């Protein structure tokens, strides 16, 4: 072999080795990236773990905090607010009533016709409008003018039996899903905003009065006869259909719960007298906190960046406003750990861009190629061409976040049952008994689109209730969906009060 040939062969061998080294290096780096992604997922799974023993700790903590909140004003992060609703609808309510329901995302207007016996809602009209985002941070006049004009248009469209120039006074129930210090069933002061609302001039003001003024300004002759929390409306509708309904929970933009309490257990209001000996207590459980809650760095950062840090900690792990945002933060972290997502898009860095219904769509994508996941990544987060194996990982991320939320929500519900002795460990105090006559039948009314529209959330929640209570006790506990309960229930509270006044 000539010298020149040997040199060429040596150069070729060297470059082949170099190419192989580059390839191996790339593979190692790629494996490294992939392993880092897996590590992020593993850490997340560990951080969000909710074995049944931990859920039971949360149950106990909820029950303890409920006691503390009832014992003294400010005694707990759960406010346990009086509602002055001491009688729930019985079924005898009759007539036509209106309700306005201001949620976190939607404003709903409704008209309800009641037939005079249980479950006899003869007709109801509901119209739903997204709340224009600029109104969440405007002045109170802007918000209430919007509410009054939408109501006026609704009345004009559904004129059956109603006239705008009223000779007969009509009554209206107002569902206002924010913490209110109630002074009567129809009046109360806004304590603090939640769920992205920040209309500063409203805090400390009479809520029903603001609405009443806006209605008068629009020439609408109607009395705001009840101011109720959305959970209270849901409980009222639940009880109207089924007298064993003792509590209500809402999983929508935010989350909250209420239940029927004995007045003598509301120690902070000694001497509180009601005809029934009971009152509905609005827990404001969104602000519940316990060291037993499984918290991750994403929750800590989300809270720190929120307009209300150290507030609504439970809500921030559970409700529709936040679940998509938690997932966005995890995807952002994954994109920083690897280049599977290309250069980081500005969309991926935009808070709240991944709304919870989109996150649910990722989680529920059953197509073999995860086309919906690819679509959301490309269209919403502007990260195209994410490999299939990474898309699969993202589905797991959504699943972990959804499952934790639903299981904590279930622990909250069982916490209420524990407080009122319906978790299988309490005594049998009163109430109708189920067939085997050993345990009371217990119904919890549920409302909110996170629960009604997101099947996986609902399934995980229902499953966890059974897991915590055990099959035997769980047989006596029913979660019943009350569609539009928050609004219809407000109309029912008005009807029930006017029945008692007449
Ligand atoms: P509000 O909170 O205004 O009373 P809803 O009870 O309808 O209204 O809840 C709306 C919230 O529910 C949305 O902001 C969203 O977070 C969540 N949501 C609605 N549809 C879905 C869905 N299909 N999957 C997951 N979450 C959903
Ligand atoms: Mg609502």
Automatic annotation (TrEMBL):
| Keywords linked to the UniProt accession | ATP-binding, Glycolysis, Kinase, Membrane, Mitochondrion, Mitochondrion outer membrane, Nucleotide-binding, Transferase
What range(s) does the Hexokinase N-terminal domain occupy? 41-240
Q: Name one GO molecular function term.
A: glucokinase activity
Q: Tell me which EC number(s) this protein carries.
A: 2.7.1.-
**Location in the cell:** Mitochondrion outer membrane
PANTHER family from the UniProt entry:
HEXOKINASE, HEXOKINASE-4
Q: Member of which family?
A: Belongs to the hexokinase family.
- Protein name as it appears in the record: Phosphotransferase
Can you name the source organism?
A: Trapa incisa
């Amino acid at each position: 072999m000539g010298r020149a040939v040997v040199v060429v062969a040596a150069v070729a061998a060297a470059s082949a080795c170099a190419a192989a080294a580059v390839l191996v290096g790339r593979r190692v780096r790629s494996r490294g990236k992939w392993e880092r992604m897996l590590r992020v997922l593993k850490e997340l799974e560990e951080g969000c773990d909710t074995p049944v023993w931990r859920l039971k700790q949360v149950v106990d903590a909820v029950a303890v905090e409920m006691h503390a909140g009832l014992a003294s004003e400010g005694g707990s992060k759960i406010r346990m607010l009086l509602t002055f609703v001491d009688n729930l609808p019985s079924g005898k309510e009759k007539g036509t009533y209106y309700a306005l329901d201001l949620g976190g995302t939607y404003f709903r207007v409704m008209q309800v016709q009641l037939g005079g016996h249980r479950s006899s809602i003869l007709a109801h009209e509901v119209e739903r409008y997204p709340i224009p985002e600029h109104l969440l941070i405007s002045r109170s006049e802007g918000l209430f003018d919007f509410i009054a004009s939408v109501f006026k248009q609704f009345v004009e469209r559904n004129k059956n039996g109603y006239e705008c120039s009223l000779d007969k006074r009509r009554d209206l129930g107002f569902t206002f899903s924010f913490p209110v210090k109630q002074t009567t069933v129809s009046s109360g002061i806004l304590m603090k905003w939640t769920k992205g609302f920040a209309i500063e001039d409203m805090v400390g003001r009479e809520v029903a009065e603001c609405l009443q003024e806006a209605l008068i300004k629009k020439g609408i002759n109607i009395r705001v006869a009840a101011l109720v929390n959305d959970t209270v409306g849901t409980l009222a509708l639940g009880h109207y259909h089924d007298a064993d309904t003792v509590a209500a929970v809402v999983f929508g933009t935010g989350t909250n719960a209420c239940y029927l309490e004995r007045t003598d257990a509301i120690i902070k209001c000694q001497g509180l007298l009601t005809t029934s000996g009971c009152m509905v207590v609005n827990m404001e459980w969104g602000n519940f906190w316990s060291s037993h809650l499984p918290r991750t760095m994403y929750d800590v950062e989300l809270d720190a960046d929120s307009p209300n840090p150290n507030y609504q900690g439970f809500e921030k792990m559970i409700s529709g406003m936040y679940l998509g945002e938690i997932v966005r933060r995890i995807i952002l972290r994954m994109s920083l750990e690897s280049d599977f997502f290309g250069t980081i898009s500005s969309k991926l860095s935009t808070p709240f861009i991944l709304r919870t219904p989109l996150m649910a769509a990722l989680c529920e994508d059953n197509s073999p190629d995860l086309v919906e996941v690819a679509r959301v990544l490309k269209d919403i987060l502007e990260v195209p061409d994410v490999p299939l194996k990474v898309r699969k990982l993202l589905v797991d991320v959504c699943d972990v976040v959804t499952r934790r939320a639903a299981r904590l929500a279930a622990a909250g519900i069982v916490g209420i049952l524990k407080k009122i002795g319906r978790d299988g460990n309490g005594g049998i105090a009163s109430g109708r008994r189920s067939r085997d006559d050993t345990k009371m039948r217990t119904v919890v009314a549920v409302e909110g689109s996170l629960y009604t529209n997101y099947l996986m959330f609902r399934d995980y929640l229902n499953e966890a209730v059974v897991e915590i209570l055990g099959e035997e006790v769980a047989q006596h506990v029913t979660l019943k969906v009350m569609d539009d309960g928050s609004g219809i229930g407000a109309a029912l509270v008005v009807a029930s009060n006017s029945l008692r006044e007449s």
